[in-house]
Automatic annotation (TrEMBL):
Residues 39-405 form the Aminotransferase class I/classII large domain. Its cofactor is pyridoxal 5'-phosphate. Pfam families: Aminotran_1_2. This is Aspartate aminotransferase. NCBIfam families: PRK09257.1. The keyword Zinc-finger does not apply. Keywords: Aminotransferase, Pyridoxal phosphate, Transferase. Homodimer. Belongs to the class-I pyridoxal-phosphate-dependent aminotransferase family.
Length: 413
């Protein structure tokens, strides 16, 4: 009789199955194993320089230096809600300095663990305290959204968002699905630079969405992962959120500083809830604390201190906006270069969606078979739905990608 591995038989977890790789993070795992000098990783949702290197913003280095040199700084726990300055400045950044909601103390903001943590805390709060447990998320959306809200205790449904035939917004489908949604349901909205499609509603379309949602009492929950990073303008990228706050109604906003300050690994985020009155906001905050306390007790201090340092110093703030615009402009330029390269090659199809879409990601329209072919033959890595990170491209790698797309499209339909 074949003997078992003695160590294996002792484990109470012997029957555990190997879990599949995360579809997004798994791309990087495969990329790292590839020995080819031609390899390109377009799966990662993180900014890269023209040289393909991660970027730490100059203004972030300055802020860190100030913090390190400040002898009065200690490592004590933050309150459950996080760093007060950070919370106040984060609300101001997304809602606008002159927001009536802020002036009337109708906003409660808590520091969370980046965008993911902010969504999770918001979802769990809603599952405990909101009368409607259903949340509608766009189809498609970021792969983590359905998991976060399901585990938070909400029932996840979808509304139509992307139209593969136009590689643009399925606005009619979106309106129909929100019209048919359960009255009072929660609706997840990407504030700007929709992930994974890069397709955003126009200002007029946002206004129609707002009117429809308010008429049906649907509760907006914004995920703002890219403010300033999409267009290069912090105000333009927050416009959708501000429209919903301006009408006096209630809404949720999850913010992340991963992309726009390059603070990926610091896990810096905030959840803001705009309420009808200051009194309600106070009670909402008291219950948010009860969600956070048994989850992770209180948030980390370093990343939030970096953000607060930059946001409250006008000189540093201006430097940040310039660095932010430079990142956004590089991504916009990569879109143009890729579009031009495909035009030059006469690649079949209309590729104008590459320059129409916005933000870090482009939904190329390539199918999973074409993606697999490009990985195998050209060492280009991306998620199987054809989403590519424009930030992972450079002037050097655009021709290689264009060649791969051209061959994939012409040889495989």
């Amino acid at each position: 009789m074949a003997s078992q591995n003695p160590n294996e038989s002792l484990s109470v977890f012997s029957n555990i199955a190997q879990a599949p790789e995360d579809p997004i993070l798994g791309v990087t795992v495969a990329f790292n194993k590839d020995q080819s000098p031609l390899k390109v990783n377009l799966g990662v949702g993180a900014y890269r320089t023209e040289e393909g290197k991660p970027l730490v913003l100059n203004v972030v280095r300055k802020a860190e230096q100030l913090l390190v040199n400040d002898q009065s700084r200690v490592k004590e726990y933050l309150p459950i809600t996080g760093l007060a300055d950070f919370n106040k400045l984060s609300a101001k950044l997304i809602f606008g300095a002159d927001s009536p909601a802020i002036q009337e103390s109708r906003v409660t903001t808590v520091q969370c663990l980046s965008g993911t943590g902010s969504l999770r805390v918001g979802g769990e709060f809603l599952a405990r305290h909101y009368h409607e447990r259903t949340i509608y998320i766009p189809q498609p959306t970021w792969g983590n959204h359905p998991k976060i809200f399901t585990l938070a205790g909400l029932s996840v449904k979808t509304y139509r968002y992307y139209d593969p035939s136009t590689r643009g917004l399925n606005f009619q489908g979106l309106l129909e699905d929100l019209t048919a949604a359960t009255p009072g349901a929660i609706v997840l909205l990407h504030a700007c630079a929709h992930n994974p499609t890069g397709v955003d509603p126009t200002v007029d379309q946002w206004e129609q969405i707002r009117r429809l949602m308010r008429s049906k009492g649907l509760l907006p929950f914004f995920d703002s992962a890219y403010q300033g990073f999409a267009s290069g303008s912090l105000d333009a990228d927050a416009q959708s959120v501000r429209m919903f706050v301006a009408d006096g109604g209630e809404c949720f906003a999850a913010q992340s500083y991963a992309k726009n300050m390059g603070l990926y690994g610091e896990r810096v985020g905030a959840l803001s809830i705009v309420c009808k009155s200051a009194d309600v906001a106070g009670r909402v905050e008291s219950q948010l604390k009860l969600v956070i306390r048994p989850m992770y007790s209180n948030p980390p201090i370093h990343g939030a201190s970096i953000v607060a340092t930059i946001l409250k110093n006008s000189e540093m703030y201006n430097e940040w906006t310039m660095e932010l615009k430079a990142m956004a402009d590089r991504i916009i330029s990569m879109r143009q270069q890729l579009f031009d390269a495909l035009q030059t090659r006469g690649t079949p199809g209309d590729w104008s969606h590459i320059i129409k879409q916005i933000g870090m990601f482009t939904f190329t329209g390539l199918n999973s078979e074409q993606v697999a072919f490009m990985t195998k033959e050209y060492h280009i890595y991306m998620t199987s739905d054809g989403r590519i990170s424009m930030a992972g491209l450079s002037s050097r790698t655009v021709p290689h990608l264009a060649d791969a797309i051209h061959v994939a499209v012409t040889s495989m339909t």
